[in-house]
Design a protein that fits this description.
By secondary structure, the protein is mainly β. The chain is 13% helix and 55% strand. It has helices spanning 2-31, 34-47, 94-98, 297-303, and strands at residues 51-52, 58-61, 65-76, 81-93, 104-110, 113-116, 134-147, 150-162, 165-175, 178-188, 194-202, 210-219, 224-235, 239-251, 256-266, 270-280, 285-295, 319-329, 332-342, 345-355, 358-366, 369-370, 395-406, 409-418. The chain has a 24-stranded mixed β-sheet that branches.
Length: 425
């Protein structure tokens, strides 16, 4: 009995000593910044980016949730951070934590700054956090480089995003030396990703410069589906434009875009309709059917920075129509015009070739061509001269003109051939 008591006493003493060391180690770990370094390591592993906190996390234990506050969060290097926030608060429910799930009830971001595009990995072996039930953003900033060669900046971003219910964000924008305000609203719903999506972008002169309306946004296993999309652009002194798309299907992983039907109207100068669009923008492969009407080509070309040579008849090139199909198979292309009209002259045919190297083959038929409307007619006794072609002219093929008019000249069944095919690389 004495030996047993001695052994039991020693075991008890050893357990107490071990517990003291465990408690002491836990205290030193907690107050020595251990949780901070653990969290930094977890986020760094998930995001594959350096993660730094300016201070130890602040923990608040509630009956229903755990609130973690991080001060001075930085993702990325100190010289070039990808993301930073002066304060980040995450509220986690005990029910989800006890089931091993990181499902935030709420996230509050104070002065977040995101410098895109993102260079790390957003989901490496599992997401760091799932989407919260509620996210509040205060005085946020987004800088995204490479948007048409310039940096797009969104500043003073304020609002909230709800997993279920109405969400709103608003702020200022700066791009290509222009500034303005923007507003975004949407309603998140379980059956769809979002509905009643509305985006408005404006400037001081044009407060409603751009408006985007999406009644519903759906998501399948692979695709993002937009049953209807409407975009309206209106600038003072520059007219207005409307874009309408039906049954838009987008697969970012495969760089695939499909549209059942669409229409683009720019003032009364351009009306374009497309159908059965199927395009892979990464490899430039796809097809579409189209119908287009263009009015006042010279004025439209000048507005787009493509001035045309001076025409003999100022009323020429006032209306161009075309109906057909376009097929792309990098580097090949094929444009088939089943029906077209230019200045009341019918035309049709096919234009095909490659763009690397540039080589174009033309096979067109024109019912009636009056050259006098586009260039001066030859004087009596002088030979007719057409404009000289460049030394490197990558166009081959022929144009069949059923009836040609040029001043006093008349010709029928004229064939214009091009055989100089020195393609430019």
């Amino acid at each position: 009995m004495g030996i047993a008591r001695l052994i039991l006493r020693r075991i008890t003493t050893s357990v107490i000593v071990v517990l003291i060391f465990v408690v002491l180690g836990a205290v030193l770990f907690w107050f020595g910044g251990g949780p901070r370094y653990v969290l930094e390591g977890i986020f760094a592993a998930r995001l594959q980016q350096p993660v730094h906190f300016a201070a130890d996390p602040e923990w608040r234990w509630g009956k229903q949730q755990l609130r973690i506050t991080l001060v001075g969060l930085r993702v990325g290097s100190a010289a070039h951070p990808q993301f930073s926030a002066s304060r980040l608060m995450v509220a986690l429910g005990w029910h989800s934590l006890l089931h091993g799930q990181m499902q935030p009830r709420q996230i509050v971001l104070d002065a977040p700054v995101l410098n895109g595009p993102w260079k790390g990995v957003a989901n490496a072996g599992g997401a760091a956090l799932s989407l919260p039930g509620k996210m509040i953003i205060r005085d946020g900033t987004l800088r995204w480089s490479g948007v048409a060669g310039h940096t797009l900046s969104l500043t003073a971003v304020n609002g909230q995003v709800l997993a279920k219910g109405p969400s709103q964000l608003a702020g200022g924008w700066h791009w290509r030396g222009k500034v303005g305000r923007w507003h975004f609203a949407a309603e998140m719903a379980p059956a769809v990703v979002a509905r009643n999506i509305f985006l408005q972008v404006g400037t001081t002169i044009d407060p409603m410069l751009l408006q985007v309306t999406i009644p519903a946004l759906q998501s399948t296993v692979k695709d993002m589906v937009v049953p209807a999309l409407r975009i309206r652009w209106q600038a003072r002194g520059h007219g207005q434009a409307h874009l309408r798309l039906q049954a838009l299907r987008l697969n970012m992983a495969q760089s695939q875009l499909a549209v059942q039907d669409g229409a683009l109207i720019v003032g009364d100068e351009l009306a374009l309709q497309v159908r059965a669009v199927d395009l892979n923008w990464k490899v430039l492969r796809g097809h579409l059917a189209y119908q287009v009407t263009i009015r006042r080509l010279p004025q439209l070309a000048t507005r787009w920075g493509l001035p045309l040579p001076k025409l003999t008849d100022p009323d020429a090139l006032q209306r161009l129509t075309s109906t057909g199909t376009v097929q792309l198979d990098n580097p090949h292309f094929q444009w088939i015009v089943t029906q077209g009209e230019l200045d009341h002259s019918a035309w049709m045919g096919k234009i095909s070739g490659t763009w690397r190297p540039l080589a174009i083959d033309v096979n067109l038929s024109v019912a009636r061509l009056n050259l006098g409307r586009y260039m001066p007619a030859p004087q009596a006794g002088n030979a007719a001269r057409l404009p000289a072609l460049p030394q490197q002219w990558p166009v081959t093929g022929e144009i069949h003109v059923a009836k040609l008019l040029w001043g006093k000249m008349r010709a029928r069944d004229l064939i214009i051939r091009s055989t100089n095919s020195k393609a430019q690389p």
